[in-house]
Design brief:
CATH architecture of the largest domain: 3-Layer(aba) Sandwich
Radius of gyration: 24 Å
CATH topology of the largest domain: Rossmann fold
CATH superfamily of the largest domain: Vaccinia Virus protein VP39
Structural class: alpha/beta
Shape: globular
Strand content: 15-25%
Helix content: 25-40%
Length: 496
């Protein structure tokens, strides 16, 4: 046996190694282990120990052989790997060392939040130095595309800036259909990017939402949405469009759903997915976008992607998981996307540069804004819990006698950190998301800003419905990025 094994590490979103030979280096199944992160030298070291909460686990490979596996998913470890471009792993007797060879910061000039703090790059007035081509990538998710403006005729620019769409711009309108539209956090961005949404739908939800999401959509976007269950549609109901977007309900795919989850069912076909595939075919669209949780891409060995490729074989299809912070959002929110195009290779590459937006940045000048005065009143017990949670803390900071017997996970009772990103926002009341400085729940407007939604986006209905809508939103900066990126790829296909 070699004294050590050294190789490049295939970077994942955590520390993960599975191999039979781990046992010969002192990492047997059940062995207690600990890890240390050396940020100065950019290393993570894993060693055996006597007493620790983490242990070498067991996994069964396709061959049927059980082998040791080390799987560490701590946030600090995930954060470490997310910033690296190239890592070497060396397995020695009694030691595993991950060494950074090339970081994302060095390789692509990405400015991450922690690095920016240490370099004192976060200032009230944010400025960036970047060449024109790179800046064109940055503004990809904003309302004005600098590169488009530079190539537009002067009259076209004046007309579009004054709100009068020029003939050239009108010709580029893309006929679009939206399924499972919710309150419209995706559709609003696509309309701003000159898509013509001629058909949108969502169903009546008896619990929590009822029809409040439909009313919110109509008030902010348009009357083209109909309230009807997508499973009722036939081919005759579906108009022909250029593009289709669908945010298929994610509850059946989410790891948080332990009551009824698609992963536990025998069927390899999900009814909503199969009907969405039907509608894509019926619509004769040239492109489509599917949004869902990360798990959607991996459930049952990636069966969903297989179904898309089997039934939509005319499309070139890619997948991408996007963290909203990579596009300048104040909320760490990852969502999975599937993009398909006919006649072109799709692309969802993220710009190399994005503005850093903290919770504090998002909440600036928020007083007096619409729906800033709307929030839940905490119960006496919840208020007592809030008092014990520091910025960036969670239920683990609360005395045991005050903790919930049902909700013991660290994503419960979280107080936001003004100088950091917000965690993934679910239902503000159910999971108890706390204002950074005040002992209260987040308001409607504060939560909307964490999703980058503009202040003129107004929600309809009672608080429970509003926060149900918000937890299902796609971050608006992500939506803008998608709308603009797809338009640039789709337009040539429609005019060829």
């Amino acid at each position: 046996m070699k004294e050590s094994i050294k190789r490049l590490y295939k970077i994942k979103n955590r520390l993960y190694i599975e191999a039979k030979y781990l046992a010969t280096f002192g990492f047997n199944i059940g062995q207690a282990i600990k890890y240390e992160i050396d940020k100065t030298n950019k290393k993570i070291t894993v060693v055996p120990t006597q007493n620790a909460r983490k242990h070498v686990a067991k996994t069964t490979q396709k061959s049927g052989m059980s082998v040791p596996v080390i799987d560490i998913k701590a946030e600090e470890v995930k954060d470490f790997f997310s910033k690296q471009q190239k890592i070497e792993v060396e397995i020695q007797q009694g030691k595993i060392v991950f060494t950074v060879l090339e970081s994302t910061l060095e390789a692509t000039n990405v400015i991450d939040f922690e690095a920016a703090k240490s370099l004192k790059l976060i200032m009230q007035k944010k400025q960036y130095l970047v060449n024109l081509e790179e800046f064109g990538k940055v503004v990809n998710y904003q309302q004005i595309d600098l590169l488009d403006l530079l190539h537009a005729e002067k009259n076209d620019i004046q007309d579009s800036m004054s709100g009068q769409a020029s003939l050239k711009i009108k010709e580029k309108a893309i006929r679009m259909m939206s399924l499972f539209s919710g309150c419209g956090s995706i559709d609003k961005a696509f309309i701003e990017e000159n898509y013509n949404i001629i058909f949108a739908n969502d169903r009546f939800v008896s619990r929590a939402l009822r029809d409040n999401h439909i009313q919110t959509y109509r008030n902010n976007i348009g009357d083209h949405i109909i309230m009807r269950d997508v499973m009722e549609f036939t081919k005759e109901d579906i108009p022909e469009v250029d593009f289709l977007a669908a945010g298929i309900p994610c509850v059946d795919f989410s790891n948080l759903n332990v009551i009824k989850n698609f992963r536990d069912e025998e069927s390899m076909q999900h009814p909503l997915v199969e009907q969405t595939l039907n509608i894509i075919n019926w619509s004769k669209c040239k492109g489509f976008l599917i949004e869902n949780v990360e798990r959607f891409l991996t459930v049952k060995g990636g069966i969903m992607i297989k179904r898309f490729k089997e039934r939509l074989n005319k499309f070139n299809i890619i997948t991408r998981v996007i963290d909203a912070t990579s596009l300048g959002s104040p909320q760490k929110r990852k969502r999975a996307f599937i993009l398909g195009l006919q006649g072109a290779d799709p692309n969802l590459d993220i710009p190399h540069l994005a503005q850093l937006t903290t919770v504090g940045d998002a909440f600036k000048n928020i007083e007096g804004k619409p729906q800033q005065d709307m929030y839940f009143t905490p119960t006496t017990k919840t208020l007592e819990r809030m008092k014990h949670v520091p910025q960036g803390g969670n239920i683990n900071s609360v005395p045991i006698e005050l903790r919930s017997k049902k909700k013991k996970f660290s994503n419960f009772c979280q107080r936001l950190d003004l100088n950091g990103y917000a965690p993934t926002i679910t239902h503000v009341q159910d999971e108890v998301f706390i204002h950074p400085l005040l002992n209260r729940y987040l308001t409607v407007r504060e939560t909307a800003r964490l999703f980058s939604l503009p202040d003129d986006f107004i929600f309809s209905g009672p608080l429970t419905s509003i926060f149900e809508m918000l937890k299902n939103c796609v971050d608006f900066k992500v939506s803008l990025f998608l709308a603009r990126t797809i338009r640039k790829q789709l337009t040539p296909l429609l005019h060829s």
